[in-house]
Amino acid sequence: MEQRDRNGLTEQEYLKQYKVEDFERPSVATDMVIFTVGHTEEDNYRKLPVKELRLLLIKRGAHPYLGKWALPGGFVRPTETSEQAAQRELREETGVDNVYLEQLYTFSDPGRDPRTWVMSCSYMALIDSAKVQLEAGDDADKATWFSVSYQLIKEQKELFEDGYIQSKHYELKLSGELTTLASVVEYQETVTQSISKREYSVISNDGLAFDHAKIIVFAIERLKGKVEYTDIALHLMPKLFTLTELQQVYEVILNKELLKAAFRRKVVHLVEETDHYTENAGHRPSRLYRKHRGSRG
Description:
Blueprint: H1 11-17, E1 27-40, E2 50-60, E3 69-70, E4 73-75, H2 82-94, E5 100-107, E6 118-126, E7 140-160, E8 163-175, E9 180-192, E10 196-206, H3 212-227, H4 243-254, H5 260-267, E11 271-277, E12 287-291
Parallel strand pairs: 1-6
Antiparallel strand pairs: 1-2, 1-4, 2-3, 2-7, 5-6, 7-8, 8-9, 9-10, 11-12
């Protein structure tokens, strides 16, 4: 016997009279934080290239935020999941597929998009820049890699009888060929005996569209946290690499120098030796490694 609700309706009868317009519905978008590691060549050929963390941004070719820089992204279609939308956007913007992709967070602050109520299901992707072919989407003038500078500039902690509020201000600078974008984002953590709340907010912003400064800082913190206990950094590497190159990538992400011996003990189980060596003129040949086939991010 089919069940009936308090109004005496079966599920089929309930769905037939259901009015979707009785409730406001948000649009859902995906915003992609796409990281890679590039390098700048040194004038002295005997010096190793300097590694830097880079982020893909697109210059908006339509309102809102016309002419501003934004994360690649778009609206989720009715026929796809948010992850499928993220994979589609990644393919359309970079030409690559089958790369590291993870969901970051759902950003749903009211007013984050001036057009309408838009929730962003954001994702982080890590790719080898050598495989990328940049293409701007329909609402973009161009797509460009920006080098990432990320610094803690202010920190304070207020203690209470049953907890604390900790506030950190981060300065985010994104440098492209012709422009530099700057933002300050606050991270605030509130902890008491009954609650634990963490939130990000944009304090100042110059050149970035929407709330994308906040999404970028969220992604950087996720990347920094996971690099300490997973093999996530290996997804930024080419198929073959030296341990020195891998250490440089860790240092770029963590923004600090690492001791060579300690680093190699840390990653020894994440990589495996190959029979290949570098062939760079001016440098002693170095053994090349690859990601250990049993490691996971």
